[in-house]
Write a structure and sequence with these properties.
Helices cover 59% and strands 0% of the residues. With 271 residues, the chain is mostly helical. Helix 3 packs antiparallel against helix 4 and helix 3 packs antiparallel against helix 6. This is Ubiquinol oxidase. Keywords: Electron transport, Iron, Membrane, Metal-binding, Mitochondrion, Mitochondrion inner membrane, Oxidoreductase, Respiratory chain, Transit peptide, Transmembrane, Transmembrane helix, Transport.
Amino acid sequence: KFPVMGVRWRSSLTLGEKEQVNGSSAAAGGGDNKREDGGNKEVVASYWGIKGEEVKKEDGTPWKWNCFRPWETYQADLTIDLKKHHVPTTFLDKLAYWTVKSLRFPTDVFFQRRYGCRAMMLETVAAVPGMVGGMLLHCKSLRRFEHSGGWIKTLLDEAENERMHLMTFMEVSQPRWYERALVFTVQGVFFNAYFLAYLASPKLAHRVVGYLEEEAIHSYTEFLKELDKGTIENVPAPAIAIDYWRLPADSTLRDVVMVVRADEAHHRDVN
């Protein structure tokens, strides 16, 4: 069977877990984290160095995550059409389509059927277009002194959603050192290539993303087939996924892949 579970990254720890880590460090190495009033209680600061207000779930229990908030969670639409396809007709459509198809071959060769790591690599790339597009539309809005029609927020939300996919798959798959090095290379090339493409033709850039999302749907469908066959162990869903997609407490990795695939179908339709 393919390895699935990996170590937890510190950036994905919950606030409570970070308190335990900091507390262990303080017990082993000194009292730099003591409060000014002489107490020993650990204080977990926010990214900005200011302790934020306590956030709770609807049931009154403390909210564990500092990378997203309860009002940013949702239930994915699993009824979305997964087979929808934009038939390339214009030159730009065909250029986008065959560009994406040409990128699939080396990906299949490199990852083969290791879909956990494949998903993680995919999300490091998929989270780039929304940020690039949102950034360029933001600058355009500033230059022209005009509204964006809601597209800036839409694209930034897409980028954030793709990043949350990565945060989730980090919990279930551990990338190898050369795969982490590949992320630096691929992201660097793709970011700049997509940036230039968006400057040249936003329509082409969005069409590329649409076809990329179609390939993502295909990859996650294959992921589900491997889970159903038992080739990949259907482990319990990570806690971050259960809270982000409002999944039942007994959800599994298969349930996570289902909602992620539905997200990708939504991004396909938007682009």
